[in-house]
Design goal:
heterodimer, A: 239 residues, mainly alpha, MetI-like fold, 9 helices, 78% helix, 0% strand, B: 259 residues, 10 strands, 37% helix, 24% strand, globular
Chain lengths: 239, 259
Amino acid sequence: MDHPSLLDVISFGPDGWAPAMLAAAAMTILIASLGFVIGGVIGVGGAWAKLSGGRVTRALADAYTTVLRGVPELLVIYLIYFGGSAGVSSVARWFGVHGFVGLPPLLAGSIAVGATMGAQFTEVFRGAFQVIQKGELDAAIACGMSISVCFRRIIAPLTLRYALPGLGSIWQVCLKESSLVSITGAVELMRQAQIGASATRLPFDFFLVACAIFLIISTASGVIFAGAEAYFLLGSGRK
Amino acid sequence: MSDVVKRPAIRVTDLHKSFGSLEVLRGVSVSAQQGEVISILGSSGSGKSTLLRCVNMLETPNSGTIELDGEEIVFPPSIRSKSSNRKKVERLRSRLGMVFQSFNLWSHKTILENVIEAPIYVQNRPRADCVEEAKALLHKVGLFSKLDQYPSHLSGGQQQRAAIARALAMRPKAMLFDEPTSALDPELVGEVLKVMRALAEEGRTMLVVTHEINFARYVSTRIVFLHEGAVEEEGKPEEIFTSCRSERLRRFLEHVDVR
């Protein structure tokens, strides 16, 4: 390929970059999804701590959201990647492996995304929970529901109803933030576009294609979120 | 059989409840025999709603005893019994049907789903049975045609009747009504009272906090008048309405609208 062109970037042929770009897109979705799930779990715990925890758990949750929302995301990724890798390296030394052992980029990346997003989740869940009519919880408690049943059957679906718009925008941030994870060596869209760009000297074409793929992913997920919102709004009087 | 031998369905003894420095209940004792309908009257701030919320422990009493169907819970719980207490509280609550002033149906569930929720997920009864029973209950309160609707599509009176069906679905030992008609438009009050009267005639044990003086007079078997967190007077409706001893109760009855 003496004169590679945009066609090569989107081609599945022997010189085409399409398979690599699609694999990278899958990696992007994987990092963002794992980060979203990890963040969601942290967010549920964080919101619970802020709403009904004791003084200590509440202070911890406040400290967590303050720090993670006030620090650049790139910095969090560095801290988790190098901090985690230092931990792994010292464990590896016990087994006689010396030198730098990196945390798997996918793992480090999704934990980093999850940790930063967890702070956003915490606030979104907390706000949504506070909108629930207190009486609906009274009714659940009054019929003898245990905390776990009440959470699963009443609190979670009602919180989701009010949280979903916020969760949709958190997901979009997750997607974009996954591009920062490229610094750990994870070959997601951004990284793959850089690799292709330097190999073919077609930076604009590669970044244009990466841009298009990002837009396709975010548009598709927007449709999914709109559907979920409609489902959880059932009975709210707004649908 | 005399009242002394018969064990009451609900017995509340010497209940105290404070919010901060405000003492809302100052040693209230009320008991209801099986099949009794007790109307709890009192001006606002007399502690009647708090009393009802304490009976099913939505508010934790500071001290006192609650006995339901032979099982009793003592407040404050001793350190030893604290862990087993939570399960016991949940069990007792599931035997009391609570009807709230603002209905409190679960807005994300249809009327049928509201009624079958607790029987399935608290009492672990088979779904098909619960659905069948729920349909019969909704038929009884006149909402069979609405079972697939969401609460927000129903009128206040319909929502309250659905809430009564939801409470009945737990096969409760007693029903608690917390001002069930106070949030309703006047023309919707009758349909709810009619359902409540039917329940009373079935011989259900009911504690009713209400301002509906006619319900208290003609449906209930006993009236308890609360004043500033204590029982000021109690007795059969005919006694209360013809010759009450308390001057405060007399004034209260003069002020409420007797139609």
